[in-house]
Design goal:
single chain, mainly alpha, rod-shaped
Amino acid sequence: MANKRDLKKAIRYACGDIAGECIFAQEVFGQGKEEDWDSIIVDVALLQEEAVNRVTVAFDRAPKDFENRKAYNKARRAYYKEVEKAISNYMHEETENIVKRMNALMPKKA
């Protein structure tokens, strides 16, 4: 797993960019659909909060629970790799849903 601080920053930047795009699209294309755009922006904020909370985890076992330090480090790396994979999948799925909702609100080409 990457440095937790850097991972949290990346999540905040990504969600901030998505929210910024929503605000821009709302100003340009959002006549009559302000509540829908606002709903998406709120969902982006909730996504950011939930993803950052998911990053804040700790390995729940101590080195004394293993026969040696090497086994502990291996289990710890595997644990954090699974956590990172779960966060990545969660962010991907939620971002995909948000983008689909944004695209549905955009005007169709004539």
